[in-house]
């Protein structure tokens, strides 16, 4: 069996894909818009020895397979056709592979994962989130290259879901609107103090300082993020109001904040740590202080959580854990917050990711030169896959607003939401 034929059999003869291989073999639909080129017989080893789609991802990241065509279309197409291949058919293909000496030799060798895979030991959830391990996990993903992130994220340097106010709003307009929406939900006013945990490159911190005259402190576990943010703060003349520190949020000593924002951090906290996390943020607030939690969620808590040995956890967010929106709200509530508002921005994140995908493609050659082809490939498949995830409701994005009441139960909240859309 030729290499191209192996992949055609795994995908199904009706798949609208052309398969070619270094040995000159060809299969599938000749001239199809989507094309897979197999560069090494060892790609088959990844498919055989890795669970599910992880093998295909490993073969792609390592450069053993090239993909031509829009990655989103590739993933959505392969999702459909691979789901139709029975276990019996996979076993039949494997038996035929083993009859070929070259392919049998490739399959018999279990390859090490590509170097882009996080080298973390698999440990129980209650052991995952020490300060040292969290710092290592954040560094794996965020300390890649600030230049690379500038190309992918655009001028806003906001690596969280944007909020599109209009159908045709640009990504930059949507990121500004997201920060402004958070500011309005928090009721920011001049002279207030804001704590932004997991602040990234300081987008919310700088927005609060510039647009609302708020004294804002942001903290991040990424050294590269903190350095970039502090320079940006200085360059924009905001040093008297804004600050970003390279530190664990658990080490913030100040208290008495008027507002707390957590935009894209809760995913890294871990289920076991959510009670202490929300209690910590609650204790940082004055009475009437509001906390806005912006986090990726899963649709419910009925299905098992995202696999720790899947592609996302191995390559992108080591130790990441998602919970359902109801569970997040319950933990906030139990920590003392009165919940005043919640909304799902799922479709907005799909649009945000499409913008990032376009940015990466526009800067593909520069990105490869900056971080290497393997890392660029990780980002290409990860972001396109996440577009599918949000569109098909595998994952969601919730903003949940809570307030700290005074001793008499007063919230000092408006009778109706005053932050618009």
From TrEMBL:
GO terms for molecular function: cyclopropane-fatty-acyl-phospholipid synthase activity. The active site is at residue 386. Its EC number is 2.1.1.79. Keywords: Lipid metabolism, Methyltransferase, S-adenosyl-L-methionine, Transferase. It comes from Actinomadura namibiensis. Belongs to the CFA/CMAS family. This is Cyclopropane-fatty-acyl-phospholipid synthase. GO terms for biological process: lipid biosynthetic process; methylation. CDD domains: AdoMet_MTases. It is an enzyme of class 2 (transferase). It holds the Pfam family CMAS. PANTHER family: CYCLOPROPANE-FATTY-ACYL-PHOSPHOLIPID SYNTHASE. The keyword Nucleus does not apply. InterPro entries: CFA/CMAS (IPR050723), CMAS (IPR003333), SAM-dependent_MTases_sf (IPR029063).
């Amino acid at each position: 069996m030729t290499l191209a034929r192996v992949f055609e059999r795994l995908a199904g003869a009706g798949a609208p894909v052309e398969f070619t291989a270094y040995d000159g073999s060809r299969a599938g639909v000749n001239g199809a818009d989507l094309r897979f080129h197999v560069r090494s017989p060892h790609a088959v080893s990844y498919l055989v020895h890795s669970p599910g789609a992880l093998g295909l991802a490993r073969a792609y990241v390592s450069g053993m397979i090239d993909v031509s065509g829009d990655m989103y279309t590739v993933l959505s197409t392969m999702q459909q056709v691979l789901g139709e291949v029975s276990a019996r058919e996979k076993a039949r293909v494997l038996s035929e592979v083993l009859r070929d000496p070259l392919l049998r030799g490739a399959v018999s060798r279990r390859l090490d994962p590509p170097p882009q895979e996080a080298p973390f030991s698999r440990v129980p959830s209650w052991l995952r989130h020490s300060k040292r391990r969290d710092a290592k996990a954040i560094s794996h993903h965020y300390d890649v290259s600030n230049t690379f992130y500038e190309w992918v994220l655009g001028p806003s340097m906001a690596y969280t879901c944007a909020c599109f106010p209009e159908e045709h709003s640009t990504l930059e307009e949507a990121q500004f609107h997201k920060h402004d929406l958070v500011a309005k939900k928090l009721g920011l006013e001049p002279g207030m103090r804001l704590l932004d945990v997991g602040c990234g490159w300081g987008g919310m911190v700088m927005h609060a300082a510039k647009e609302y005259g708020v004294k804002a402190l942001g903290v991040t576990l990424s050294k590269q993020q903190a350095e970039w943010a502090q320079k940006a703060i200085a360059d924009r003349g905001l040093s008297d109001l804004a600050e970003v520190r390279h530190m664990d949020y658990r080490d913030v000593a100040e208290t008495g904040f008027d507002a707390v924002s957590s935009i894209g951090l809760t995913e890294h906290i871990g289920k076991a740590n959510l009670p202490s996390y929300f209690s910590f943020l609650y204790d940082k607030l004055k009475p009437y202080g509001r906390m806005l939690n912006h986090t990726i969620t899963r649709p419910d808590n009925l299905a098992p959580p995202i696999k720790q040995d899947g592609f996302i956890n191995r390559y992108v967010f080591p130790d990441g854990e998602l919970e359902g929106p109801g569970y997040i709200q319950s933990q906030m509530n139990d920590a003392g917050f009165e919940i005043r508002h919640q909304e799902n921005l799922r479709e907005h994140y799909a649009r945000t990711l499409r913008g990032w995908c376009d940015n990466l493609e526009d800067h593909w050659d520069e990105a490869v030169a900056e971080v290497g082809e393997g890392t660029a490939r990780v980002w290409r498949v990860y972001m396109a896959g996440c577009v599918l995830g949000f569109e098909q409701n595998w994952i969601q994005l919730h903003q949940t607003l809570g307030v700290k009441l005074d001793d008499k139960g007063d919230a000092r909240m408006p009778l109706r939401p005053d932050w618009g859309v």
